[in-house]
TrEMBL record:
This is Sterol desaturase family protein. Residues 93-229 form the Fatty acid hydroxylase domain. GO terms for cellular component: endomembrane system; membrane. Keywords: Lipid metabolism, Membrane, Oxidoreductase, Transmembrane, Transmembrane helix. It is found in: Endomembrane system. The chain crosses the membrane at residues 12-29, 50-73, 79-103, 146-166. Its main location: membrane. It comes from Microbaculum marinisediminis. GO terms for molecular function: glyceryl-ether monooxygenase activity; iron ion binding. GO terms for biological process: lipid biosynthetic process; membrane lipid metabolic process.
Length: 287
């Protein structure tokens, strides 16, 4: 961790984040996979505002974050890997794999547990699918995710460098596999044998429930294959599929306030509001 300590964890992560974001954004512009139905504009402002709020919340609540907790556990010899006295490189590799599986399991849980799904809906409510969708997680979900990661890190006694690398890779891969850029089919097949590609993860953002209930991975594709949640392609194709949630196919998810309040509004009230808006629009169109 000496190099990371010299540069500063936060500065290094921000540099990598900015670099990956810029590359993905340029790739989307030069070779888009799908046409955006709602465009960038307010969507991007909202999604970027959400990640800024998320970052502030984590830094305020958990100044040490996952890497700091790993340093504490390492200094005090806490965790399974310390008990087993594993070589550093073995502990690092196992920690990376275990953390990736833990994030896969967390993603599955937020879809299966109703109260967590109410929070996770904010991510799926995005009406388009691009690099900023990777940033669109409600602050409550980000806080809960950090708590879960810290628990796993301490339980394992994960090496701090491995935790740092996992966090950097997770952020970068999330932007990669949410990006709206076209990867040749042959290259996609090769890549998804190991990692989650945009075409693989886009299936998970389908309005088709059977497809939403699939492809939970962010980094490695092995977990979905292993636990039989892997769906290779959307039934309607990537150009024909609908992104988001059927209840929220309006411009509301592009608004910051609406997105942050979504978990707290009764589902039937939100749905009724959307139905009323649609009925009013249909009536105005018929006149």
């Amino acid at each position: 961790m000496d190099f990371v300590d010299t540069i500063g964890e936060g500065a290094l992560r921000l540099t990598v984040f900015a670099g990956v974001f810029l590359i993905m954004a340029l790739a989307e512009i030069s070779a888009p996979r799908r046409d955006l139905g709602f465009g960038r504009g307010r969507r991007w402002i909202t999604n970027m505002a959400i990640v800024l709020i998320d970052t502030l919340a984590v830094r305020l609540l958990f100044p040490l974050a996952a890497v700091g907790v790993a340093l504490w556990a390492d200094a005090n010899g806490i965790g399974l890997f310390h008990m087993l006295a594993l070589p550093g490189w073995v502990a690092g590799l196992l920690a990376f794999l275990a953390l990736d599986l833990a994030i896969w399991a967390q993603h599955l849980a937020v879809h299966k547990i109703p109260i967590l799904w109410r929070i996770h809906r904010v991510h799926h409510a995005d009406v388009d699918f691009d690099v900023t969708t990777a940033l669109r997680f409600h602050p409550f979900e980000i806080v809960l995710s950090m708590v879960w990661k810290m628990v796993v890190v301490v339980a394992l006694g994960a090496p701090p460098l491995s935790v740092f690398l996992f966090e950097v890779v997770l952020n970068g891969m999330a932007m990669f596999n949410h990006a709206n850029f076209n990867i040749p089919a042959r290259l996609d097949r090769i890549l998804r044998a190991v990692v989650v590609t945009p075409d693989m993860h886009r299936v998970h953002h389908s309005t088709d429930i059977a497809e939403t209930d699939s492809n939970y991975g962010f980094n490695l594709s092995i977990w979905d294959r292993l636990f039989r949640t892997y769906v290779p392609q959307p039934a309607l194709g990537h150009e024909g599929m609908t992104i988001g949630l059927d209840d929220y196919r309006t411009d509301e998810p592009t608004r910051l306030g609406w997105s942050l309040l979504l978990p707290f509004g009764p589902q039937n009230r939100v749905r009724r509001h959307l139905e009323e808006r649609k009925a009013a629009a249909d009536e105005a169109g018929s006149q």
